[in-house]
């Protein structure tokens, strides 16, 4: 019929942009292309704002300013950053220290900061470990300040940055009237809003086989929830025939072993990304006993019998 308006979800828009060291993509369905374009542009604008605030590669960012001055004095931060750092401390407490954003110096010693990795001397690891520990990041809620009670401490956004950015993009798009979208940060933190027209269950996503990236090992549907995956195949190096992954156990100072990948489905991308690290580092037995309510977890272990499975 002439002049008929498109039905909800009839139009599809897809865009991508590079930010925070990775590629972000958005797929949107709707009936108003102009509004869809505006919503995606606003989401990417939010992404650029977060890149300026949370990057540890930009000396002027709020995150870098904390690293530069917090060992000397209490640094007043924005309410947004204070909330994020507070949540990170809570993840650390609940994961028994397996999640810890104070691993900045450790990541540098292992060559994973702006690099592909190197095998450090044990003395280097021991020295770096003295600068790691979430309890040494002192948060003052009354004054909204951050202070390090140990020199050399460095916070690293690598374990939560993509997830937090995806959540913020989702909120921006919701405020713009979008109800059906898939937002991906680097392919490892994904949020599915609503359900695409062809699939009422939600957005179909696959978890790849850590030993063969061409082969999916599991699939799931996301409907107003997120999926994040951490894998030893993402960033690693070999030395004397052994593989060393970038997923660091902050309690030992060495890359975690025994696991190939951990995937978590949660209501927020911040939660799913943060919890992949403790699940990977602490292993299946710990995950079964300590998995927070509302999460679904898929683990691939480095073993022959039933290496990949959803936790029951």
Question: Can you describe what's shown?
Answer:
- Helices cover 31% and strands 30% of the residues.
- By secondary structure, the protein is of the alpha+beta class.
- It has 3 domains: 1-56 and 158-195, T-fold (Roll); 58-155, Orthogonal Bundle (T-fold), CATH 1.10.3980; 199-312, T-fold.
- The protein is globular and about 60 Å long.
- Mean pLDDT is 93; it is low at 1-6.
Give the terminus-to-terminus CA distance: 51 Å
Please name the fourth-level CATH homologous superfamily of the largest domain. ApbE-like domains
Strand order of the largest sheet: 1-2-6-7-10-15-16-17
According to CATH, the fold-level topology of the largest domain is: T-fold
* Low-confidence runs: 1-6
Specify the biggest β-sheet: 8 strands, antiparallel
Question: How many H/I helical runs?
Answer: 7
Give the domain tally: 3
Number of strands: 17
CATH class of the largest domain: Alpha Beta
List keywords for this structure.
30% strand, alpha+beta, 8-stranded antiparallel sheet, 312 residues, T-fold, single chain
């Amino acid at each position: 019929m002439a002049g008929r308006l498109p039905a909800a979800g009839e139009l599809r828009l897809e865009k991508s942009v590079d930010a925070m060291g990775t590629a972000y993509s958005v797929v949107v369905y709707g009936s108003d292309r102009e509004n869809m374009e505006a919503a995606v542009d606003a989401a990417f604008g939010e992404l650029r704002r977060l890149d300026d605030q949370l990057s540890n590669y930009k000396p002027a960012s709020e995150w870098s300013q904390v690293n530069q001055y917090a060992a000397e004095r209490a640094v007043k931060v924005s309410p947004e950053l204070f909330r994020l750092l507070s949540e990170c401390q809570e993840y650390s407490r609940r994961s028994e220290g397996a999640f810890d954003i104070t691993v900045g110096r450790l990541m540098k010693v292992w060559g994973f900061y702006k690099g592909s990795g190197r095998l450090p001397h044990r003395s280097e690891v021991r020295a770096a470990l003295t600068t790691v520990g979430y309890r040494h990041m002192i948060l003052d809620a009354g004054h909204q300040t951050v202070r390090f009670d140990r020199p050399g401490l460095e916070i690293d956004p690598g374990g939560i940055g993509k997830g937090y950015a995806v959540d913020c993009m989702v909120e921006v798009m919701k405020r713009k009237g979008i109800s059906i979208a898939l937002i991906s940060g680097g392919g490892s933190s994904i949020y599915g809003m609503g359900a695409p027209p062809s699939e009422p269950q939600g957005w179909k996503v696959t978890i790849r086989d850590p030993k063969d990236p061409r082969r999916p090992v599991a699939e799931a549907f996301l409907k107003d929830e997120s999926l994040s995956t951490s894998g030893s195949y993402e960033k690693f190096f070999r030395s004397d025939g052994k593989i060393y992954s970038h997923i660091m156990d902050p309690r030992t100072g060495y890359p975690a072993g025994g696991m190939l990948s951990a995937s978590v489905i949660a209501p927020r991308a911040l939660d799913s990304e943060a919890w992949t690290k403790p699940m990977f580092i602490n292993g299946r037995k710990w995950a079964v006993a300590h998995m927070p309510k509302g999460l679904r977890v898929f683990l691939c272990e480095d073993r022959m019998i039933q290496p990949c499975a959803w936790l029951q």
